[in-house]
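User: Can you help me understand a structure? I only have the sequence.
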Amino acid sequence: MTTLLSTKSLTESQRQLLAEAGLSVVEQEFIRVQLLPMPTFEWQHNLLFTSQQAVKSVVVQKAISYPENHTVFCVGEKTKTALEAVGFIVKASFESATTLANHLIDSEVNHFDFFCGNRRLDTLPTRLIQKGKNLREIVVYSTENQALKIETPIDGVLFFSPSGVESYLEKNTLETLPCFCIGSTTAAALQGITQNIHIAPTPTVEATLQLSIDYFKR
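Assistant: Let's start by predicting it. Here is the structure, written out as tokens:
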């Protein structure tokens, strides 16, 4: 049976998706996330989120008392869903930080609070600041590697973040293994290491799993 390595834990429905396609999966958390205490600010009207973890930290800490009073721009449909579930008004969501940055640069909005992790990419803040936008970063979670040597024979790897790629490569190699990535940013972390990179058409776990299913059905 074809065996995949998932570099994060999956839900039961996600495991079932693979099982129904005749694929087995080994799951290992390659990164550890810790929520960080948030400062007390008067928040900007316009808020930016590029990850579900940032949403979780803000919500768990009840940092924003009246989410409906803010306008939010975010990356990812699941990030959008998580925000709307607790009352935020999501004006627009995008598939990547690059497309979000392009949209904001062309807008008349100039002041933002950006909730992010300690290893956030430079794409969004750098581009906005270069274009004269006022951006305040609030680091609301930290990400640390949990590298582990994988002894089980595998036929492919599922990657969901650049940090996951980095952590995996600390103690493992890829050689010719196909790598299935949730998005282009994660795939970029594999450049120069392997050419066997496959990117999900939409940045969701389910789309990444389906990508691997379609690959092994060929």
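Now, to help you interpret it: The helical segments are 12-20, 52-60, 77-85, 97-106, 123-130, 162-171, 184-188, 205-217. The mean pLDDT is 95. Let me know which part you'd like to focus on.
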